[in-house]
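re: ur question from yesterday

yeah so i grabbed the chain u mentioned. its 101 aa long if i counted rite. heres the sequnce exactly as i have it in my notes:
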Amino acid sequence: MSNFKQQQIRLPKILKGARGAPCMMNSQVCNKDPETTVACHLNYGWAGKGMSQKAGDHAVFYACSECHRYYDESGGHFPDWALLKAVVRTYEYLFQRGVIK
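ran it thru and got these C-alpha cells back, copy pasting raw so excuse formatting
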C-alpha cells in the first residue's frame, strides 16, 4: 500500500465560472435555470473524494440546482457516460470563455 497522500486541487476560477453557466447534465430532472448552476464535484475516490472530503476542483461539472441535488442525494446515479459528457462540456465551456487555456 502506498503512503501517497493526494493533495486537494483548488481552482477558484473554475468554481466561479459556474455562475450563469448552462447546466451541462441536461438530464430529465434539469431545471434549465443558469442562475442556479454550481460546480458539482464528482463522487469518486480517484478524483480526490474521501471521507468528509470533496473531490478536487479539477473534477467538476456544471449542474443546475436540481441536477446537483439529484446527483448528491442519489449517490451519483447518473450513468458514467453522462457524467463524463458533462465534465467534457464543462471544460469546453471554460475554454471557449477563456477561463482556462
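noticed a couple things. The longest strand covers residues 38-41. also The mean pLDDT is 84.
anyway ttyl
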